[in-house]
């Protein structure tokens, strides 16, 4: 055991670790993206396929990431270098660090929008319908030059403030507060949503499948992609968090707890959102503008109490965003601390500044000075970076699945993961060797547009 391993921080408790890992997974994807993707893909049918993807692909890869991190007791890159020295597996770690930079740069911009809405509900800016409507209000804000940068900066300062304190006093302590608070808020808002008159239609949309949707391959692709990204797979966060875990903790039960809590959170978010949408006769497939345009319109229609509901909702979304951002920053911080022997304070502040600067073009591309300018894939900066992350994360997840499934001896992988020989252990290895790689390859092909091209070559329209 080297010096860096001996001095490595550890979680103070099993609960702290599970809540931190859950915090990494729970974020904008569980509330914002899950809601509108569910709406766009038929509701209940999508959710059933999503659940299958979580437990057939998500759970095996989560366990693989935890196993790699705890065994190596190092950051995402260092873990692969320790377990497979002088072999190319470390590319999976580097992809995670790169993805952390890219994702947090634009994720912080969107989270900054959420903070703006929190402030508007506190100060009265959204107590009534704006003159330009909620769509106009949102458009005017994101097309500005200075305010999007300010809220982006404030969110990054909050994220840096947590990570710089450390694992026990910073990340663990924050999640011990954020996760229970999130749970209480989302349950309260879900219960209230069910009283608005759209409960029957909303619950039917979520829990009564339209069986014809199962014949649509796009629903499967959407569910597969959402399951992968919702659980924060492939970006090195769960490897990094697993590296702060002691050997006495049992990984399989922790893995199931994290996946179940994250999935439960997403479904309750659907119960919170869809009854309200149906109660006011709005479209469930409102797309990315759902939480910034459609939901504020609903809160305004509720009346005076809608101000409180709106404030609580955006506080909920902000807290979820912060918990995920913390894990993204920690991936990069852990790498730079080991690689360059930086102190936590130095690494966190420098990387926080760099990520903020990388995010500036994203903040100015949504109607601002850089609006209309193409970046990657012919898209604006923020959209291009989001699409790039949609490619990097699956590749990282593919490396992780192949490494544990094929790169390690089966006996070693099982011993390090606390799995005993038997059906479940063999199933885990089988899923990592065959099911996960094929599924992830499909995600990558779809994200790059190659899937449509390949199917088109065979005369299959997609």
Task: Give me a quick take on this structure.
The chain is mainly alpha-helical. Helices cover 75% and strands 0% of the residues.
Question: Could you describe the 3D structure shown?
Answer:
The longest helix is centred in the C-terminal third of the chain and has 36 residues, at 305-340. Helix 2 crosses helix 9 (167-193), helix 4 packs across helix 19 and helix 14 (290-302) packs antiparallel against helix 15. The relative contact order is 0.18. The protein has helices spanning 3-6, 14-25, 28-40, 44-72, 76-83, 91-123, 133-142, 147-163, 167-193, 199-207, 217-230, 237-242, 251-279, 290-302, 305-340, 344-363, 381-407, 410-416, 423-448, 450-457. The chain has 20 helices and no strands. 75% of the residues lie in helices and 0% in strands. The protein is globular. It has 462 residues and is mainly α. The chain has a single domain (3-457), classed as Amino acid/polyamine transporter I (Up-down Bundle), CATH 1.20.1740. The N and C termini lie far apart (52 Å). It is found in: Membrane. The chain crosses the membrane at residues 12-32, 44-68, 89-115, 149-167, 176-199, 219-244, 256-282, 302-335, 347-364, 384-406, 427-460. Belongs to the sodium:neurotransmitter symporter (SNF) (TC 2.A.22) family. It comes from Lottiidibacillus patelloidae. Keywords: Membrane, Symport, Transmembrane, Transmembrane helix, Transport.
């Amino acid at each position: 055991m080297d010096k860096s391993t001996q001095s490595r921080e550890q979680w103070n408790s099993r609960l702290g670790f599970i809540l931190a890992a859950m915090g990494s997974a729970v974020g904008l994807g569980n509330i914002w993206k899950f809601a509108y993707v569910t709406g766009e893909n038929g509701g209940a049918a999508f959710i059933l396929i999503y659940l299958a993807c979580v437990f057939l692909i998500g759970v095996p890869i989560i366990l693989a990431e935890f196993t790699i991190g705890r065994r190596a007791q190092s950051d995402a890159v260092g873990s692969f270098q320790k377990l497979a020295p002088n072999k190319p597996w470390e590319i999976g770690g580097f992809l995670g660090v790169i993805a952390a930079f890219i994702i947090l740069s634009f994720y912080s911009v969107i989270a900054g929008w959420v903070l703006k809405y929190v402030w508007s509900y506190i100060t009265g800016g959204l107590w009534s319908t704006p003159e330009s409507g909620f769509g106009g209000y949102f458009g005017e804000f994101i097309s500005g030059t200075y305010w999007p940068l300010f809220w982006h900066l404030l969110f990054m300062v909050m994220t840096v403030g947590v990570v710089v304190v450390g694992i026990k006093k910073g990340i663990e302590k924050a999640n011990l507060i954020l996760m229970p608070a999130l749970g209480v808020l989302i349950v309260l808002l879900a219960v209230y949503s069910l009283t608005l008159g759209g409960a029957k239609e909303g619950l039917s949309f979520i829990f009564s499948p339209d069986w014809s949707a199962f014949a649509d391959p796009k629903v499967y692709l959407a569910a597969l992609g959402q399951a992968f990204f919702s659980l924060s797979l492939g970006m090195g966060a769960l490897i990094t968090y697993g590296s702060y875990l002691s050997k006495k903790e049992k990984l399989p039960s922790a893995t199931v707890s994290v996946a179940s809590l994250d999935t439960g959170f997403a479904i309750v978010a659907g119960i919170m959102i869809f009854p309200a949408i149906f109660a006011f006769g709005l479209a469930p497939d409102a797309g990315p503008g759902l939480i910034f345009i459609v939901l504020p319109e609903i809160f305004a229609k509720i009346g005076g109490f809608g101000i409180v509901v709106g404030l609580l909702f955006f506080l909920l979304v902000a807290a979820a965003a912060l918990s995920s951002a913390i894990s993204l920053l920690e991936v990069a911080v852990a790498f730079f601390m080991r690689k360059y022997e930086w102190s936590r304070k130095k690494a966190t502040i420098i990387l926080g500044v760099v990520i903020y600067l990388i995010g500036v073009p994203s903040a100015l591309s949504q109607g601002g000075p850089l609006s209309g300018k193409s970046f990657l894939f012919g898209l604006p900066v923020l959209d291009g970076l989001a699409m790039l992350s949609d490619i990097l994360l699956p590749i990282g997840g593919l490396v992780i699945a192949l490494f544990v499934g094929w790169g390690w001896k089966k006996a070693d992988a099982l011993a390090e993961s606390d799995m005993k020989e038997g059906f479940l252990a063999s199933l885990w290895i089988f899923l990592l060797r065959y099911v996960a790689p094929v599924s992830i390859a499909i995600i990558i092909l779809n994200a790059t547009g190659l899937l449509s091209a390949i199917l088109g070559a065979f005369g299959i329209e997609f």
